[in-house]
Design a protein that fits this description.
Chains A, B: Keywords: DNA-binding, Transcription, Transcription regulation. Chains A, B: This is Transcriptional regulator. Two copies of one chain form a homodimer. Chain A is mostly helical and 255 residues long. Chain A is 63% helix and 3% strand. Chain A folds into two domains: 19-81, Orthogonal Bundle (Arc Repressor Mutant, subunit A); 86-250, GntR ligand-binding domain-like (Four Helix Bundle (Hemerythrin (Met), subunit A)), CATH 1.20.120.530. Chain A has eleven helices and three strands. In chain A, strands 1-3-2 form a three-stranded antiparallel sheet. In chain A, a hairpin with a 5-residue loop joins strand 2 (71-73) and strand 3 (79-81). In chain A, helix 4 packs across helix 6. The first copy, chain A, binds a DNA duplex (30 and 30 nucleotides) through helix 3.
Chain lengths: 255, 255
DNA sequence: AGTATACAGGTTGCATGCAGCAGCGACGCT
DNA sequence: AGCGTCGCTGCTGCATGCAACCTGTATACT
């Protein structure tokens, strides 16, 4: 895990990025893949050596990661990898559901119906993935992409930059993201059917938005998020599955 | 506006603070009081000169302010003061209401009833302020303090650090805070009675929490936040009142 | 006259030096 | 032997130097 010269999969399109962004991506990746264990202090110098970037941008990246919630400051100075109780994760999911619910309601109340086109297209793509290719690894991958896009489209339709920012932040805890547990589901046959339920909710929420049924859209979206909570509960009993959850290593086994 | 040697009211207890925190407080104050007009680029060097702090901590403070949402990055580099449409402000208030509503529901569902003591004490203090001293300037000030404490106690009772963080962030836009418009109300007689309504909602939400009526607590808290929206609407017609809203200078007159 | 170009000033992004502090280990004292 | 104290090492927080970049202006050319 401690290759000295090379660093994780941030290979593509790193060249033009400013150093700070590069450092942010690298450190986030290191944390999520578990290379930096929770609770451990992150030495600026060691990261600087491993990445060839000087301490200044690394420091900046760590500050941003603290805002994201992945690291925390140590009273005596510096930063440490944060860890999360299971309750924390459930709460994060509930928060996302609440905010996405608000987005869905606003989309229903004030969204421009012109946006329904892309939404429906996205729905249809998800349908195809769920119906046909869901058994394959690549199918899950496609599902994750399309699922993320659908959620983004709904948030867009709310037309509230403030809300968008807030949701972005809520989702920056990766296991709270809409796609957080999908890849884990590939390993848990008993949760395959959850995808059908999820897709049904997708259809219902879009229908509710189209009908300007704000309260309904909100309620569905909240319940939709709770599916992730159920998957988390399942994954907590599957060691292998939890490994596939981004940032799963940060979840404390004992609460 | 450009006093060279001195800076705003950050006089008390600055000595022991690290430079970064000091810079953060100073810059935030400069923005909120309107010394740095919205849209204007914040020159690191000029702030450094005005504060006597070097560029490094100033830069760090600006990054944090960007996360808070008070400044934004300029594509060509550096930071600028952000401005907000009226819709942005309403949305920010709605988001706070949603999150505080979630907090109230969680407090009702899983909060420890031992926490009701301080809550009721706080309620009583608010009662006294509202009944007697509300006509005076100092009365409003006391109201702001106690109101902030009540809101904080409710959030505490939800016992969710994640949610607490998220609410902290939502409230970092100062005009979205529970106390954002209270000081403005002092200047708007027609909104005095709003305080009675607000206090009634305080009582009701605590009662709902005590009875473990989660849905009721959530709904009341959401509606409670919308009072701030009504005050905003009033304040937008009172030039003087808007001046008393922290960060009021950042709200664009035209949407 | 209008436009394009080149130059200059200022500003950021980054690297690095330095001082101060916290943590840790070893040594001496009781 | 146990405990307290001293010294050291490594680290962070901050200051500053430097190069690249963007912007704005003035000039020259069409």
């Amino acid at each position: 895990m401690s290759q000295v010269a090379e660093f994780p999969s941030t290979s593509e399109a790193d060249k033009g990025q400013p150093r700070t962004v590069k450092a942010l991506l690298i450190i986030r990746e290191l944390i999520l893949e578990g290379a930096l264990p929770p609770g451990k202090r992150i030495s600026e110098l060691s990261v600087a050596e491993r990445t060839g970037i000087s301490r200044t941008p690394i420091r900046a990246a760590l500050q941003r990661l603290e805002e994201e919630g992945l690291v925390e400051t140590i009273p005596s100075g510096g930063f440490a990898v944060k860890s999360f109780s299971q309750q924390d994760v459930f709460d994060a999911i509930e928060i996302r559901g609440t905010l996405e619910g608000l987005a869905a309601r606003l989309a229903a109340e004030r969204g421009s119906m012109a946006r329904l086109g892309p939404l429906n297209a996205c729905l249809q793509e998800l349908d195809e993935v769920v119906e046909s290719a869901i058994a394959t690894e690549e199918g899950f991958s496609r599902y994750v992409t399309a699922n993320a896009r659908l959620h983004a489209l709904i948030v867009d339709m709310a037309e509230s930059p403030t809300l968008e920012r807030q949701i972005e932040r809520a989702v920056s805890l990766p296991f709270a993201s809409p796609s957080g547990f999908v890849m884990a589901q590939a390993l848990m046959p008993e949760s395959h059917r959850v995808l059908f339920v999820a897709q049904d909710q997708h259809r219902c929420v879009v229908e509710a938005i189209a009908n300007r049924e704000g309260a309904r859209a909100e309620a569905i979206m909240q319940e939709h998020a709770r599916l992730a909570g159920r998957n988390l509960r399942l994954a907590l009993h599957h060691e292998k599955a939890l490994e596939r959850v981004p940032g799963g290593a940060l979840i404390r086994k004992v609460r």
